[in-house]
Amino acid sequence: MKYLKSSITFFLVGLLLIVSTYTVKASEPPPEIVSALIIKLMPFEQTLMSGNGDMTIHVIGSTALADALQKVVGWQIGSRKLGTVTVSDNLPSEKPDVLCITDEKILIEAIEYSRKEKILSMTNDLELVKKGVSLGIGVNEKGKPSISLSLESSKKENLNWNSAVLKIAKTIK
After folding, report:
1. In the chain, helix, strand, coil percent, each to 5?
2. 16, 24, 121, 164: which could join 8 in a potential S-S bond, CB 3.0 to 4.6 Å?
3. Dmax of the chain from CA atoms?
């Protein structure tokens, strides 16, 4: 068990170091980096991994992020496989496992939906984490990719994060 925790911590620190070597000049990181971090971080949310069947992700407002995630459909993510990625400017018609909120237009409705359905909400805009999204993969004030985690929002979505994530993410209470 101690070896597993050390391995997880080492993996996450290494991942953060690799990603942080990229300086991003735009207000959001490239979709490929966000997609890669989503795939690497999801196995550390234990409620998500306890689900059955293929995992589904719905992206609100970013065809570029949805396209990047489409490239990894079929990949193993922890104990599950990524099965479907959908995209629209609205809430999904069927309940996904993960809701990626990239557009603030329906932020309140999307947060309410993720809390009601007990699914992981995430975003590529760190400011949205401060407004109620659980997990953010974005760009910090120094132009570097960063991970933010809202403990309050995670609790409202019934999420159970591995403690290793808390070591690399900026937590917001």
Report:
1. 45, 25, 30
2. 164
3. 44
Q: In terms of residue numbers, what domain contains 37?
A: 2-172
Question: Three-state DSSP class for 161?
Answer: strand
> 42-71 burial, b for 16+ CB within 10 Å, e for fewer?
bbbbebbbeeeeebbbbbbbbebbbebbbe
Token output for 100: 């990626």
Tell me the whole-structure pTM to 2 decimals.
0.83
Pairing, β 120-123 against β 145-150: unpaired
Q: What is the mean pLDDT of residues 150-158?
A: 96
- Indicate which CATH number applies to the domain containing 63: 3.40.50.2300
